[in-house]
Amino acid sequence: MSAIRLLVLGAVRQHGRAHGYQVRNDLEYWGAHEWSNAKPGSIYHALKHMTKQGLLVAHEVAPSTVGGPPRVEYEMNDKGTEEYFTLLREALSSHEQKADVLSAGIGFIVDLPRGEAVALLRERIAGLEQWRSTVTEYYTPEDGPEQLGHIGEIMNLWVHSADAGAEWTRGLIERIEGGAYTFAGEGEPFVGVLADDEPNPFAMDPHPEDSRLAKRRVDGGR
After folding, report:
1. Which residues does 152 contact at the CB level (< 8 Å), separation at least 6?
2. How confident is the model over 92-144, as pLDDT tens digits?
3. With CB atoms counted within 10 Å of each terminal CB, which end of the chain scores lower, N or C?
4. Residue 76 burial class via C-beta count within 10 angstroms: exposed 0-12, middle 13-18, buried 19 and up
5. Can you tell me the distance from the alpha carbon of 107 to that of 36, in angstroms, rounded to the nearest whole number?
6. Helix 20-29 vs helix 40-52: angle between axes, to the nearest 10 degrees?
7. pLDDT digits (tens, 9 = 90+) for 28-76
8. What is the C-alpha separation between 96 and 106, in angstroms, rounded?
């Protein structure tokens, strides 16, 4: 599973309708270009590709007053919504997800009901514990990695990764069950995106797909 699909769908969903620069700006504000493959080219490609797949609907809007071609705004349809929640649930429940996919899932976890989020995270813990048990069929952590030569360090890494992942997930579950954060159906959610006129301190250089208006915002209105 690629993180870019979940990230882009989730960013569009947060706005209802969003143009590519808004999606890019949100993800850069999250630092997603540092911890995932959400680079500008990948974001614009994902928007166009998922539109062709029928997950997003593209709307042309009037050109800006500063000139340039019509801006395209993207909106998620029912098929896109179904795909989004499928990806989100997989990201949270599977112990095999890469860090960028899990990070994307955590970023949108409050789109789910609180109880479902906890249940998915418990699935993740169960998967980690099962995976750990398969490793320890051949490797005894108490005896240390030396028992298998330097190759034992690989097993040692796997065991420690499983333990750390399970411990972190249990901590998150404890915070959620303790009332942390606002989940779906509980009220106004936390707003984790910038306002349209709010500068992004983490913005990357303009990309050819950015609209002229978006470039002017990055350049400080010049």
Report:
1. 139, 144, 145, 146
2. 999 988 899 999 999 999 999 999 999 999 999 999 999 999 988 888 888 87
3. C
4. buried
5. 13
6. 130
7. 888 888 888 888 889 999 999 999 999 999 998 866 555 566 788 999 9
8. 15
